[in-house]
Amino acid sequence: MQTKLKNCNGCNQPKVIWKSHGKEKYCKECWYKLETPKKISPVSKKMRETMDEYSKRRAAFLVVHPFCEAKLMGCATKATDVHHKAGRGENHLKISTWLAVCRQCHQWIEEHPNEAKELGFSESRLNN
């Protein structure tokens, strides 16, 4: 049994019709040219709300804590970052787990997790 060819409304060539849109019929190539891909949001609505809330709290936190609380070697003194001592998961918005730090100290804390725990700059995520 041979497939019937019909004129495609996109390219006006006799082809196997892939899909119809109302009375218009399209071959596979033309149909995919017509469809606009659905844009997937990179961030969910819930996460966007959490991030907006975090931005507000972070700004207020750094106003109240303008100086680096780690004061490690090479410290820039002015706090620019918020270190999440207990991680960012469920403690993301919990200010009691935050530490105001400068960029240099924050980088050191992230690169030296064992020493940071010993100094009290990080907490075990298992205990929370």
Q: Can you give a write-up of this model?
A:
There is one protein chain. With 128 residues, the protein is of the alpha+beta class. The chain has 2 domains: 1-36; 45-118, no CATH class. The protein is built from 4 helices and 6 strands. It has helices at 28-34, 45-64, 103-111, 113-118; strands at residues 6-7, 14-15, 19-21, 24-26, 81-84, 98-101. A two-stranded antiparallel sheet has the order 1-2. A two-stranded antiparallel sheet has the order 3-4. A hairpin with a 2-residue loop joins strand 3 (19-21) and strand 4. The chain is rod-shaped. The mean pLDDT is 88.
Number of strands: 6
Helix/strand/pairing category: alpha+beta
Tell me what portion of residues adopts beta-strand conformation. Answer: 5-15%
Rg is: 28 Å
> Uncertain runs with pLDDT below 50, 5 residues or more?
none
- Can you write the helix and strand succession as a string? EEEEHHEEHH
Largest sheet: 2 strands, antiparallel
Task: Describe, in short, the structure shown.
With 128 residues, this protein is an alpha+beta fold. It has helices at 28-34, 45-64, 103-111, 113-118, and strands at 6-7, 14-15, 19-21, 24-26, 81-84, 98-101.
